[in-house]
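Task 17 of the worksheet. Students: predict the tertiary structure of the chain below and write it out as structure tokens. Keep your answer in the requested format; marks are given for formatting as well as content.
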Amino acid sequence: MPAFRRIILAIGIVILSACDPQLTDDPIPLITFNDVVINLGLPDYNSLRPNGGMKLLNNIGVRGVIVYRVDATTFRAYERNC
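Model answer:
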């Protein structure tokens, strides 16, 4: 059993040392954009009709926005910055 533990330990060390953390300090730019009106009658937004539906909007925000439908009257928008 000690040989097995040594092998597992060696593999763990190799895996952990191979990972290079990408910890760059890339600040999120502060930009503003106009309100976006989404017409749920258009075929492009069919995915937002049911509760739990989502749509990626790449033409607004820094890297785009994810729109999520919680219920018939509540939508959430998340910036795709990460």
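Marker's comment: The helical segments are 2-18. The chain has one helix and three strands.
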